[in-house]
From TrEMBL:
InterPro entries tied to this protein: Leu-rich_rpt (IPR001611), Leu-rich_rpt_typical-subtyp (IPR003591), LRR_dom_sf (IPR032675), LRR_N_plant-typ (IPR013210), RLP23-like (IPR046956)
Chain ranges of the Leucine-rich repeat-containing N-terminal plant-type domain: 34-56, 71-90
Residues annotated as signal peptide: 1-22
Keyword match Lyase: no
SUPFAM superfamilies given in the database record: L domain-like (SSF52058)
Species this chain originates from: Solanum stoloniferum
Family, similarity comment: Belongs to the RLP family.
Protein name: Leucine-rich repeat-containing N-terminal plant-type domain-containing protein
Membrane-topology descriptor: Single-pass type I membrane protein
């Protein structure tokens, strides 16, 4: 309050200053009287400018700005003293009438002989927030009879406030926020009674040790007598003042008496009698404080019922009755206090049910009902308080279940429900990211679900009594070290969902005792060593997600026989050896993601049994095999990625009628494949001809169908998209790509590719393809990137390619193409590097003109051997991963990004990457949300 008020008076002073300047702008020049200038300079010299900065304020919730200014630094004889910082003159007489040296970093002592006291014309003196250690009180202050405003707050004055201050009877404001000073009773009385103009009185912290006088100057608007050792009985005196707006009497425990009857004409806005000895019942007339917005009665001796008339305080924003002896029910009229942001009723003896009064209190941020005798159920309207930040219902006798929605209140940061009789949590709940404190101890809960994701936990929580737990999620914390032995030792009979992902767990996995586990997620840790073979005892396991760890050795071969296993995600570890016989005894695997390991040998033929297989990602291993045409019989297979292995030989076609009918992502790049591109195999890719969901306009994502749906796994892969390696968090069902780049394919480009009418990306670069670019490729009307670079293609670029109206990236460089470059809508956007290193192409964008045979302008081959020179210098993978690391859960990029504000660069960056169709629907979704 002191600081706040200081700023109020600071503003007042500014007004005075500007007024005196504006009224006298005509007559400037040396108006300062030399004696006063001398007095000021002398005063200045008695200090050092070495005090600690004392003045700050919060510009908004976080930023603190210092406003200490060493005003006396600018004082010197060469300038008129009226222009010195902090000095105000009367422009008619030239006298110094205002001196504001608040927050001026002054350090020193004001002696009784100080020249300050020669400034007899001063009307305003503000020395607040400096360091005047061991300055005894300003005994000569009584000489400054003209003072209207005096502020000596918080500047380390010491000792008795001199009685001479009683001479300053013209004061309008007197501020003396100060510890360690004393004021005698007579002077206190004189100030309150004889200063007839006094509007602002702040003596916070001054030791007064007197009763409040009976008759009080009626001009008072603001009174702060907090912490002043007031004694005696609180009388009506303050409450009868016609214009009093703020009264702070807090922290005067010797102040007794009852709250007086309140007169209907009172004008109080704020009243603080907290930590006083005021007792008795609240008068019914409390409701007549109709303009009150702040009422603090914390820790008094009040008793009885809270009168219904409290509902008449309709302007109230802060109401605290905590720590008294109130009894009875909470009046339901509180529901009328729509402005309330703070309601404290803790530590009384209230009884009965908590009335359901909260649905109207939409501004409420703090609700404290702790430590009373409340019974009954959780007041259901609390869950409608969307502004609620802190809720404390602890130490009551509430029963029934805790509604799940309270935990997802968007701003809630602290929830205390301990020491009640709650018997359950609504079955499924998720804490929101703002929750920092949750105490449910000492209830009758039989905990079934414990979700502590993203809680900044540093240690593995020590859980007791958790044998009945069904769901445990402590992912996305900062837990270090090994999984503790007690955890591995428990027989977890009920647990079906365990998520320890995104922590910093180290060490080896112990034997498991999770007999009924269905979902195990340990991704993004530093776990190492082999997977224990006891993992195969978890008969019900459906999802095994161990990616992004340091696991090594070969994987236990029994893994191939786990009958319910649907998702096996072991990507980015150090596994070695050959693959186990996956689907040896079952058919349920639908997602196998083993990329970025050191697997070798051949693909196990048992995969033929995986009739539900949708995703097989073997990228970046050392598999040495021929093309698995036999996988073509898997009718559900949508994603086949064999990139960067040692596959070799020609691409054979399979024998069955429906071969790879659902394949949409087909990546054989960076292998040793050879032979021609068989026309027939492309004809089989039915899914690239007509797409699911193409007509509905709805974007779907691939996810395996798990029996127990709730904690879901979404398929994700890495792809080279338009020249960049991207880790896709989700696979949309409209992404269709063929990437056969960096092999040894030869022969011509088959015309049958034209049938793949939904193809989005096609990359045949870095092979030995010859012949012409088939003009039929112009029929691929959803194609957005076409890369045929680094082959030996000849002839002209077919004019038909200009029909590819979605084409955004084209790379035909490093071939033997000739003739004019076609013109067309998209073609006009491609630049030189789309065509570099060809024999004899001409026309824009190349500088070589058509119709001449001047070979001196043939573009030089590009320097980069890398296929990704479209965007060289920017590594997409690192950027995308870098962003998604901050996510709560790594699989929900889009929903996350729509929910929260997305960084601009991220939006722009992605908007060029996804298929146009998706971009449209993402934009639509975004528009709907804004
Ligand atoms: C204030 O001045 C005194 C005496 O010169 C000195 O000891 C003290 O350190 C100064 N305070 C600060 C904060 O510089
Ligand atoms: C003022 O009083 C102080 C302490 O009594 C003394 O040290 C100082 O010299 C005096 N200054 C003047 C200008 O007399
Ligand atoms: C204060 O006012 C009362 C009544 O007017 C008067 O008797 C008393 O002398 C005054 N006190 C001072 C210190 O001026
Ligand atoms: C104050 O509240 C009481 C009880 O709720 C009610 O009867 C009375 O009319 C109210 N008075 C005013 C002035 O609103
Ligand atoms: C909760 O407590 C109330 C009052 O003590 C009682 O009437 C009610 O039956 C209890 N409800 C439950 C679910 O225990
Ligand atoms: C797991 O598979 C076995 C055998 O196929 C089946 O009997 C069992 O019910 C499955 N477990 C669950 C939880 O469905």
């Amino acid at each position: 309050m002191g600081i706040l008020f200081f700023f109020y008076s600071f503003v007042c002073l500014l007004l005075i200053v500007s007024e005196s300047f504006s009224s006298s702008s005509v007559m400037m020049h040396h108006v300062c009287s030399p004696t006063e200038a001398f007095a000021l300079l002398h005063f200045k010299q008695s200090f050092q400018i070495s005090g600690q900065p004392r003045c700050w304020y919060e510009t908004d919730m976080q930023y603190v700005r210092y406003v200490d200014i060493p005003k006396t630094k600018s004082w010197n004889e060469s300038r008129d003293c009226c222009s010195w910082d902090g000095v105000t003159c009367d422009m008619l007489t030239g006298h110094v009438i205002g001196l504001d040296l608040s927050c001026s970093l002054l350090n020193g002592t004001i002696h009784p002989n100080s020249t300050l006291f020669q400034l007899h014309h001063l009307r305003t003196l503000n020395l607040a927030y400096n360091e005047f250690y061991s300055s005894s009180m300003l005994h000569n202050i009584g000489g400054l009879r003209n003072l209207r405003h005096l502020n000596l707050s918080d500047s380390f004055f010491e000792g008795e406030i001199p009685t001479e201050i009683s001479y300053l009877s013209n004061l309008v404001s007197l501020e003396f926020y100060c510890y360690g000073c004393e004021l005698d009773e007579r002077t206190f009385e004189t100030i309150l009674q004889n200063f007839t103009n006094l509007e602002v009185l702040s003596l916070y912290g001054v030791n007064i040790s007197s009763p409040i006088p009976v008759n009080i100057s009626s001009s008072l608007r603001y009174v702060d007598l907090g912490h002043t050792n007031l004694r005696g009985v609180l009388t009506e005196s303050f409450f009868l003042l016609p214009g009093l707006e703020r009264l702070y009497l807090r922290a005067n425990d010797l102040l007794k008496g009852v709250l007086p009857k309140i007169h209907p004409s009172n004008t109080l806005l704020e009243l603080d009698i907290s930590f006083t000895g005021i007792s008795g019942e609240l008068p019914d007339s409390i409701g007549t404080f109709s303009s009150l917005n702040f009422l603090n009665m914390f820790s008094c001796q009040l008793s009885g019922h809270i009168p219904d008339s409290v509902g008449n305080l309709t302007q109230i924003r802060y109401l605290d009755f905590s720590k008294n002896h109130f009894t009875g029910h909470i009046p339901s009229t509180i529901s009328k206090l729509k402005q309330l942001t703070y309601l404290g009723l803790s530590s009384n003896s209230f009884t009965g049910e908590i009335p359901d009064i909260f649905s109207n209190l939409q501004e409420l941020s703090y609700l404290y009902l702790r430590n009373n005798g409340f019974i009954g159920s959780f007041p259901s309207t609390i869950v409608s308080l969307t502004q609620l930040q802190r809720l404390d219902l602890s130490y009551n006798s509430l029963n029934g279940t805790i509604p799940s929605s309270v935990l997802s209140l968007p701003l809630l940061s602290s929830l205390s429900l301990q020491h009640n009789k709650f018997s359950g949590l609504a079955n499924e709940f998720k804490t929101n990211p703002t929750l920092e404190y949750l105490d449910l101890s000492h209830n009758q809960l039989s905990l079934k679900v414990l979700l502590l994701s993203s809680c900044e936990l540093k240690d593995f929580p020590h859980l007791t009594n958790v044998k009945k737990l069904l769901v445990l999620d402590i992912s996305n914390n900062k837990i270090r070290g090994q999984i503790p032995n007690w955890f591995s030792g428990i027989r977890w009979d009920s647990l079906w969902y365990l998520n320890l992902s995104h922590n910093s767990l180290t060490g080896h996995l112990q034997q498991f005792h999770f007999h009924n586990l269905e979902y195990l997620d340990l991704q993004f840790n530093f776990l190492q060593g082999p997977i224990p073979s006891s993992i195969c005892n978890m008969n019900n396991l459906q999802v095994l997600h161990l990616s992004h760890n340091n696991f090594s050795n070969s994987i236990p071969s029994c893994l191939g026989s786990m009958s319910n296993l649907t998702v096996l995600d072991l990507r980015r570890n150090n596994f070695t050896g050959s693959l186990p016989p996956l689907c040896a005894k079952s058919t349920s695997l639908s997602t196998i993601v083993l990329n970025d390991n050191h697997f070798e040998g051949t693909l196990p033929v048992s995969l033929l049994n995986c009739s539900g297989l949708e995703v097989l990602d073997m990228r970046n291993n050392a598999i040495n095999d021929t093309f698995p045409a036999w996988l073509g019989t898997l009718q559900q297979l949508q994603v086949l990625i064999l990139k960067s292995n040692v596959f070799h030989g020609p691409i054979s076609t399979c024998q069955s009628t429906f071969c790879f009918p659902k394949l949409r992502i087909f990546d054989l790049s960076r292998n040793e494949f050879s032979g021609s591109l068989p026309a027939k195999i492309f004809g089989n890719f039915k899914a690239m001809i007509k797409l699911d969901g193409e007509d509905t306009g709805e974007i779907k994502y691939m996810k395996p169908s798990l029996r127990s749906m709730n904690p879901s796994y979404e398929d994700s892969v890495s792809l080279v998209i338009k020249g960049q390696d991207i880790e896709l968090e989700r696979i949309s069902t409209i992404m269709t790509t063929i990437d056969l780049s960096s092999n040894h394919f030869e022969g011509v480009i088959p015309k049958t590719l034209k049938d793949l009418s939904s193809l989005w990306l096609l990359n045949l670069s870095h092979n030995n393809l010859i012949g012409h670019i088939p003009m039929e490729l112009g029929q691929l009307n959803t194609l957005e990137a076409l890369d045929l670079s680094w082959n030996r293609l000849t002839g002209k670029i077919p004019q038909e390619l200009t029909r590819l109206t979605f084409l955004e990236k084209l790379n035909l460089s490093q071939n033997v193409l000739v003739g004019p470059i076609p013109h067309g809508p998209q073609f006009n956007t491609f630049e030189n590097d789309s065509y570099g290193g060809n024999l004899d192409l001409c026309g824009p964008p190349l500088s070589k003109q058509c119709g001449t045979s001047d070979l001196s302008h043939v573009p030089q081959p590009l320097e980069s051997e890398d296929e990704s020179y479209f965007f060289s210098g920017f590594t997409w993978e690192s950027v995308v991963i870098g962003y998604s690391c901050g996510l709560v859960v790594g699989t929900v990029v889009w929903s996350f990004m729509f929910k929260y504000r997305r960084p601009e660069w991220f939006v722009e960056f992605f908007e060029g990457i996804y298929p146009k169709k998706m971009r449209r629907s993402m934009k639509r979704a975004q528009r709907q949300r804004t």
